[in-house]
Amino acid sequence: MGDFAFIIHPIELEDVYRKIKFLKKLPAFLVESIVKIMPPIKVSKITGVRSPYGETSGYFIACPLTSKQMISMPEEKVLKKIIRTGKIAERLGVKIVGLGAMTAVVGDAGITIARNLNIAVTTGNSYTVATALQGTKKAAELMGIDLKEANILIAGATGSIGSVCARILAREASQMTLLARNKEKLEDLAERIRQESGLNVAVSTNVRESVSQADVVITVTGSAESVIDVLDLKPGAVVCDVARPRDVSKRAASLRDDVLVIEGGIVDVPGEADFGFNFGFPPRTSYACMAETMLLALEKRFESFTLGRDLSVEQVDEITRLAEKHGFKLSGFRSFERPVTAEEIANIRRNAARHYR
Question: Are residues 135 and 93 in the same domain?
């Protein structure tokens, strides 16, 4: 028996093909139909998560729906399947379950799921914010960008992660643009930031225009498809892509050698963590949302820590403190599922500098 479980799901059909290879021979529409009716399953046991203050274990449980399906299917059906997945966690005897990728976005961001389960639920978004900000600041520093002078763009600003990222960064920024689809929600957030920090932020619904002017981008839109065209990025820009699925297309790696795109929310897990499942990361490395669930289990805080779309700055500060206590820390930079070396970052910086000579 473990203390926690974490719900994962296939981001795209390629993830399904990696696990069930023969399905690749079938038409995509047929595979989608098969995935839709597949039941949730326990994927693996997670062991060896250990800090100076304790040890915990848990499980990965899969909810077989792709990101596209979670957005396009009726919300009620998607939530019902996620809840069914959570019921497996209950039967395994865990005390808290974390929601991964789109399962943390659908509907009311975990609230309905928590109401229908008899164990605690967390989206992991508080620690995702903390690590995204840490990574963005470090990447900007390595690229020679002063955050106090930079034009910062928060894409998906009205979402739970985007809004609290904006509120925290507003403490030290002088220029910030909030980007989302809903102008009214953007104005409400901008006013909140003005009241909290005094920063007069700009708002925009124009992706291309906003991206082309930004020195630093934190993007977390919750879209099922990429929303940022890499050709629009400013030379020398830093992009922290927190979204899963990604907001920046993989073609960035081949089309632009003068921008730094990093994955947000990647952390080293203390101890000898064995996930029993390969999700493309080096050993003992996980997404921050997964790590938040582990952190709460280590603390024996079996509570619904992060739910809904209104994250608080206090939650982010609290989970940051717990991460430091237990030895979770920001991992090295990764871009499109591979490590980024200091030499590569130096090359990106040199390539960007040529545009301004």
Answer: no
